[in-house]
Amino acid sequence: MSYPIQLPKTEPVLTITHPTPISWVIELHYGTDNRLAERVLREGLTPALDIVERDWRESTAKARKAGDKQAGHGSLVIVGKRDQEKFFSNGFPYEDIVKKSWYIHTFFNPIIARLLTYPIPTVCAMNGHTFAAGFLIAMACDYRVMSAGRAWASMNEIHFGAPMPRAFAALFRAKSPSPAVTRKIFLEGHRFVPQEMLALGLVDEVVEGGTEKVLEAALALGAKWAPNAKTNVWGLQKREIYLETLKAVHEKPHQMMPAEEADLFVDSLRARL
Question: Could you cite one Gene Ontology molecular function of this protein (predicted)?
Answer without folding.
Answer: delta(3)-delta(2)-enoyl-CoA isomerase activity
